[in-house]
Amino acid sequence: MANRSAAELALLGGTPVRSSPWPQWPARGPEEERAVIAALRHGDWGGFPLPNERAATFARAFAERHDSAHALCVANGTVSLEVALQAMGVEPGAEVIVPAYTFEATASAALFAGCVPVFADIDPDTYCIDVGAAEALVTDRTQAIVPVHLAMTVADLDSVGALAEKHELAVLEDCAHAHGARWRGRGVGSWGEAGSFSFQSSKLMTSGEGGIVTTSDDVILDRLHALVNCGRQRPGAAEPAAIGHNYRMTDLQAAVLEVQLGRLDRQHEIRARNASRLRAAIEDIAGLTNLRIDDRVTTQAIYQFVFRFESGAFAGLDRDTFVAALEAEGVPCDGRFYESLPASELLRPDPARYPAWSATLARSPVPDCPNAERAAYREAVWLPHQLLLGTTTEVDDIVEAVLKVQRGAAGLAGLESAEVERLRLARSAR
Question: Which CATH number describes the domain made up of 30-259?
Answer without folding.
Answer: 3.40.640.10
